[in-house]
Each structure stands twice: as structure tokens, then as C-alpha cells.
Amino acid sequence: MNSERCDSLPPIPAEEVVFRWASKLYAQSVDHKDAAGFAAAFVDEGSLRFGNNPPIHGRPAIEAAITEFFLSFLALRHEAKGAFLTKDTLILEAVVTYTRHDREQVTIPAVTIFHLAGAQPNDPQRPLADDCRIYVDLTPLYAIRPSGP
Fold it and tell me: How many CB atoms lie within 10 A of CB 49?
């Protein structure tokens, strides 16, 4: 994770702006399975680490990986439980309800940590991340359910 903000980007917006951005990112992109919308939150060379998977580097690779992830279930919905901003680090706590392909729902706690690099050059009210780490145990999402009575 880069500890220095990108000097070519406008500064990170105020805390309340960052929190609104995060809420909008999840409501309009993630919970609508819009991988391109999620990937747009990153600088071009950003990185994403999802659970214990190897890091993914670059906005196109992030979009491709998230697209693949979104195909593995029907729907998801985040319920925010906490948001914390310390300098350039945004920590989001949520409970995520996934709808599996068998239509069963599972609810799982998750934490996402964004390292913010600055703001969009053409929209200084929109942060950009250079790193994101998502911590969630997806075992219940992919568990095989017993069939029959």
C-alpha cells in the first residue's frame, strides 16, 4: 500500500464527502453488480486484494476480477455498520447479504479498507483509491447445501 498521496491528484476530500462517496459507490455500483463502476474508484495502477487471493493490479484487471466474482451469485446488498477515515485510509464495515444461484440467501460480515490516493482530477469531490483490501469469509456463500428432506 502506497503511504503517500499521488502528487498529480487533487487532495482527498473532506471526511463527510468521502463517506458519501463510499455509500454511493456501494449503493450504485457494487450492489448493482457494476464492476466497471467499482473499478472506476481506482487510479489506473491501483491494486485490490480480496480475502486471501493474490493482489490484482490495474483498473482493467480489477474490473475483470470483480466481474467474475459478481457472476458467482445472483445479487448482493450491503448494510453499512461503520465507516472510519484516518488521514488517507477509509475503513468500511458492513453486513453483506448475498443471493446465491439456488436463491438461498446468506449474510456475512465484511470489512473493506481503501487507501485513498487523492481525488478525481475532473471531480475533486470524488476520491480515488490506489489500494483496496476486502476481508470476508465467503465459505457460506459457496457451501454446498444438503438436498432433500
Answer: 16
DSSP lists the bridge partners of residue 58 as none
Q: Distance between CA atoms of 31 and 120, rounded to whole angstroms?
A: 22
pLDDT in tens, 46-75: 999 999 999 999 999 999 999 999 999 999
Q: What is the 3-state secondary structure (H, E, C) of the chain?
A: CCCCCCCCCCCCCCHHHHHHHHHHHHHHHHHHCCHHHHHCCEEEEEEEEECCCCCEECHHHHHHHHHHHHCCCCEEEEEEEEEEEECCEEEEEEEEEEECCCCCEEEEEEEEEEEEEEEECCEEEEEEEEEEEEEECCHHHHCCCCCCC
Strands 42-50 and 123-136: parallel
Q: Are 38 and 25 in contact (CB under 8 A)?
A: yes
Cell 499521488 belongs to: 6
Question: Strand pairing of 123-136 and 56-57?
Answer: unpaired
Q: What is the pTM for the complete model shown?
A: 0.91
d(CA 3, CA 85): 15
Angstrom distances, CA of residue 127 to CA of 10, 16, 31, 81? 9, 12, 19, 21
